[in-house]
Design goal:
The chain has 285 residues and is α/β, with parallel strands linked by helices. 42% of the residues lie in helices and 18% in strands. It has a single domain, classed as Rossmann fold, CATH 3.40.50. It has an 8-stranded mixed beta sheet with strand order 1-2-4-3-5-6-7-8, sandwiched between helices. The radius of gyration is 17 Å and the shape is globular.
Length: 285
């Protein structure tokens, strides 16, 4: 089991964080994506802690009730601030270097962290989110498949997006999570965090602060594991397979048959095994 700790990074920013494992163990920071929460990583927090790692999974800015600036003030959800939050949370555990894992929007942040602070990372684990340059290339393909898969990014910029997602007992999000194999009990855990107007508007502020443009980053210089399910409804094969072109470090691509966008919730044992092997190959020296 994990503990919940409240980590204050600066006045007005207090994050609720799942924490497990030995205090002196190598740090693994895990960043969730849109529509879920820190509970996305429950199985990994516990499995990696049992293997001797200090595991940390926060509810991020806007998802954490204690770290929720006014969602109407979009610049307060700029990606630079989200990255600074992640680095500050890692810093609160007193580590110079750590392992980083990201999913979906948390994956976007993690690619950026790896680009800006490669010396701080022993390894990178990515779930679903392709390298930004592979993603941009897929979006530009003439068949329009990735653009269609990513159509919700534009819809999330609309003023009515929050109420629409929350309508009918959060029907849109419940349906999407269920279709991607997320168990019912996990869906309820995530909705306990994001299934209310304040949290949903803050989550959407991430998109509204960025807009539709995904800034490219350089080739990733951190040892990387990329886990992608071939039933992912938002990321197609060209973007996933194209990621290899932009990794300038040891790289493993794990394509999981029949797995959707939320692999850590859907097939936690497979994700645990892949992550444990990846972290073991790239220990913090």
């Amino acid at each position: 089991m994990f503990d919940t700790q409240n980590i204050q990074t600066e006045p007005g920013l207090v994050f609720d964080v799942s924490v497990a494992g030995p205090v002196d163990g190598p740090l693994v920071l895990m960043l969730h994506g849109f529509g879920v929460s820190r509970f996305y990583w429950n199985a990994q927090v516990e499995a990696l802690a049992d293997a001797g790692y200090r595991t940390v999974a926060p509810n991020q800015r806007g998802y954490a009730a204690g770290a929720r600036p006014d969602p109407a003030d979009f610049p307060r959800y700029h990606i630079d601030l989200l990255i600074a939050d992640a680095m500050a949370i890692a810093g609160a555990f007193g580590r110079d270097r750590f392992h980083l894992a990201g999913h979906d929007w948390g994956g976007s942040l993690s690619w950026e962290v790896a680009d800006r602070f490669p010396e701080r990372l022993a390894s990178l684990t990515m779930l679903s989110r392709p390298h930004p340059r592979a993603f941009l290339a897929a979006l530009a393909m003439p068949d329009g498949e990735q653009k269609r898969r990513s159509g919700h990014h534009s819809r999330f910029l609309e003023p009515q997006a929050g109420p629409d997602i929350l309508a009918d007992d959060v029907k849109w999000l419940r349906t999407r999570l269920k279709a991607n194999g997320v168990p019912p009990e996990a869906i309820e855990r995530h909705l306990s965090v994001i299934g209310n107007p304040a949290a949903m508007e803050a989550a959407l502020a991430w998109y509204r602060a960025r807009g539709v443009r995904h800034e490219p980053v350089g080739p990733t210089k951190v040892p990387t594991l990329f886990i992608w399910g071939d039933a992912d409804d938002t990321v197609g094969r060209p973007a996933a397979e194209g990621t290899a072109e932009f990794i300038a470090a040891p790289y493993q691509f794990a394509a999981l048959s029949g797995v959707g966008h939320y692999a850590a919730d859907q097939v936690p044992d497979q994700v645990n095994a892949l992550m444990l092997a990846h972290l073991a190959r790239h220990p913090i020296s």
